[in-house]
Amino acid sequence: MKKAQFIKVFAIVVYTAVGVEALASNKSSVSKGDLSSRRDVLSSCVTSFGLAAFAPHALAASSSSLDADKAKIVAGYKRLTYLLDHWDEETTVCKTGNDNPYLGCDRTPEKVMSYLGFKSMEDPLFRADKTLIRLQSLVPAKDADVYQDAIDIWMEKSEEGNGLAFISSWGEANPGGGKDRVALFIERSRNDVIESRDVLATAIRILNLKVD
Questions:
Q1: End-to-end C-alpha distance for the chain, whole angstroms
Q2: What is the mean pLDDT of residues 173-186?
Q3: 186: closest CA among 196, 171, 197?
Q4: Residue 20: its pLDDT value, please?
Q5: pLDDT at 77 over 50
Q6: Which of 33, 38, 109, 165 is the most exposed place for a label (fewest CB within 10 A)?
Q7: Which residues on neighbouring strands pair with residue 106, listed in sequence order?
Q8: Residue 101, φ and ψ in degrees, nearest 5
Q9: How far is CA 63 from the centre of its chain?
Q10: Across the chain, where does the E strand assignment appear?
């Protein structure tokens, strides 16, 4: 029902309800109890009409939001899979230039934090725990415990992986640090990325999502 049509029909319903109530109140033969009952019935009719008119729009919006959340989980899973498949390439930055003897290739944790959704609000895994929680309403009862465990593991491992990557970014600057310390913490964060990716795989299986 279009908005203009709804307003027109709703106005007719309200006008009719008011008219009937006024007519009933002018009749001395109508008791206060009967009049109150009529008012309750008319009020219920108007309320039901409004709910019936708006419910499809609310359901459509909810369905659209859930579809967007599903897409985020699938996209995030694919991105983490890509990161793991290209780990050395994605966590290494090579500088170019022949006039500086110190230029070369260095390990960098930036991509790890980015792929886990901690660098941009536009990333599909940004606040992925909230996304997973919103999708919890679609989880079959038999998988409820496994899905809840997956959410808990995601929160733990994604935060840990991001934390190790952040520590890695300071590995060379800290006293006693060096490139080997940077590489060490990056590789430790890899285990957390693997477990985070596996959590998304579990959610995808439970929610019966398709991964191209």
A1: 36
A2: 62
A3: 171
A4: 42
A5: yes
A6: 33
A7: 93
A8: -70, -15
A9: 13
A10: 92-94, 105-107
Cα dihedral 76, 82, 88, 91, rounded to 10, equals -30
Structure tokens at 37: 């009952």
Euclidean distance between CA atoms 93 and 161, whole angstroms: 19
**Distance of alpha carbon 191 from alpha carbon 61, whole angstroms:** 38
- Judged on CB neighbours under 10 Å (0-12, 13-18, 19+), 184 is middle
Tell me, what amino acid is at 100?
N
Residue 150: CA count within 13 A, CB half-sphere: 25
Are 91 and 109 within 8 A, CB to CB?
A: yes
Q: How far apart are CA 86 and CA 80, in angstroms?
A: 10
| Amino acid identity at 48 | S
3-state secondary structure of 37: helix
- Neighbour tally for 146: CB within 10 Å: 13
Helix boundaries (H) for the chain:
3-25, 32-85, 87-90, 110-115, 128-134, 144-169, 179-206
CA gap 128, 116 in Å, rounded:
9
User: Phi/psi of residue 28, each to 5°?
Assistant: -65, -20
Quote the mean pLDDT of the chain: 74
What DSSP designation does 100 have?
A: -
Question: Which token pair is 177?
Answer: 């640090």
Query: What is the residue type of 22?
Result: A
